[in-house]
Amino acid sequence: MHYIDRWTLHRHQKEYYKKRPFSDTVVIFIHGILEGNMQFRNLGSIAYKEGYSVLILLLPGHGETGETFAKVHLNQWVDYVNKQVQQMEREYKYIILVGHSMGSLLAIGYAAHFPGKIKSLVLFALPLAIELKYRVIKGAIKIATGRLSEKEPYVIAECRAIGVGKTKSWTYIKWIPRYIDLFILISYIKKQLNKIKKPVLVIQSKKDEFVPVRVIRLIQQQLVTSKIIILGDSGHFCYHHSDINRLESAFKQFLQEEK
């Protein structure tokens, strides 16, 4: 058993932008609820090496304390994404949106309403439904206390993905409206799927502890331009090493095809 100081781990996260000379396309990464943008550093590196500029967003209320997170709301996240993407549209000919979890929902929402310069989308762990497995509750308690075991890779991976610092116990209750925001967003985005006409790469995990496998069928039915890859040994945050290779290869190939 060892202790992880989540505040030290996540308080220094910030928005990241790296311009690729002569690139006419920027890849914009959008993280999910409670997450941080550090999770995209490998994919961002791949995108840059493939000749793309890279922008990794940090949603309002993230990269700070739990108290700060409790005070933000869905409209702020949507407005922030809209503002950042539209700013990039003034500089680039094309935009590729990449999202994880709630970030995937925000990416779809933008592409459905402002498709003009959107070239394609890459969506990880698209949460069109949520079903919490037991290990989520167990893991949340361990993350809150900071006492984790190396034998619990799913919990450690979730902790490392989190982009909100430690907070007082009673503040967690104030987070409830943010989760309600997430379900509101899910309900809304499910009605927008048929508006997406651009190429989409969807990567879902069979052992996802948040998103049920049945979501894949819904994606196949409603997101008709999508290519779906199913990772057999990975979860929502924890990716098996063999799946990481497959994921990164698929991402790289997709970017190459989009040139």
UniProtKB/TrEMBL annotation:
PANTHER family: ALPHA_BETA-HYDROLASES SUPERFAMILY PROTEIN, HYDROLASE. This is Alpha/beta hydrolase fold protein. The keyword DNA repair does not apply. Gene3D superfamilies: alpha/beta hydrolase. Residues 24-140 form the Serine aminopeptidase S33 domain. The active site is at residues 101, 208, 236. It comes from the Bacteria. The chain crosses the membrane at residues 92-112. GO terms for molecular function: carboxylic ester hydrolase activity. Keywords: Hydrolase, Membrane, Transmembrane, Transmembrane helix.
